[in-house]
Amino acid sequence: MKVILIKPRGFCAGVVRAIKVVERALEAHSTPVYVLHEIVHNRYVVQDLQARGAHFVEDLDEIPSGAVTIFSAHGVSNALLEHARERDLKVIDATCPLVTKVHILAQCYSSKGMEVIIIGHRGHPEVEGTRGCIDGPVYVVSDIADLESLQVRDPDHLAYVTQTTLSIEDTREIIAAMKRRFPNINGSDSTDICYATQNRQNAVRKVADDIDILLVVGAKNSSNSNRLREVGEQNGLNAYLIEDADGIDPSWFTASSRIGITAGASAPEVLVQDVLKRLTKYGVEEIREIEGKHETMHFPLPRSEFL
Q1: Active site residues
Q2: How far is CA 224 from CA 2, 93, 288, in A?
Q3: What is the pTM of this model?
Q4: Which backbone phi and psi does 209 adopt, to 5 degrees?
Q5: Residues of the chain below pLDDT 70
Q6: Structure confidence by residue, pLDDT tens digits, 262-288
Q7: Rounded alpha-carbon distances, angstroms, from residue 213 to 116, 199, 259
Q8: Which CATH number is 13-96's, of 2.130.10.10, 3.40.50.11270, 3.10.310.20, 3.30.70.2740?
């Protein structure tokens, strides 16, 4: 068996920034530090930060009044921001700047009297945060079927934004269908998919002809990791999403399997290395890392009196 390590993979600039925010907050405060939702979608990362003293909660009301509170990289609604102010929470906002960019764009469209369509997955924290920052009419479209059943108030005053962690191919199809149905809709042809999501998907496509199996290291609730698996399947590969080495099933492989390994934007490299160690026990004899697009993106920490 042979393995190709695909680059780029793993942490993006937004995830690095979010994790650093929690680490700095833990260093700066002796009192408990609370994080609303998973700071990023990865159990290993969350458990590591928990061991250092971070408290993860799913509801703002679980946090004591006045406590240091970090919002995750996925962003939050205006209502949550207001509720945090009412409870005098010491808020540090770790929202990824690329998500914030989508929020600002959506708010701009809405302020001009347009109804806003979000291309994304209902219930995902990023989509809910974007939906909650728009004051006017807003809709969520996940696929072509959603679009076909969508009823809007004014077809000539529409705009769209995109969840940052989707598949480029899927959004392209939805956008094209949206423009056919609503010729006057406003939005960017380049979509709002983040650079890291694009780079990781492109890297998988680049090696698809050289591998039979794709292993994506990432959490089951990670949107960009699920999209990587889908990209593999779209390119004819047997693609599997695994959280760690324990997710590997030896029956997936034969003695001549050619395995590609990538990782979602919130998956740490240590998990990839554990997967490699497990595969060597199953008969992998050659591991080759290919060169991919070099990422230089860096996001400074948010300005906050509490960091």
Answers
A1: 126
A2: 25, 21, 24
A3: 0.92
A4: -75, -15
A5: 190
A6: 999 999 999 999 999 999 999 999 999
A7: 39, 19, 5
A8: 3.40.50.11270
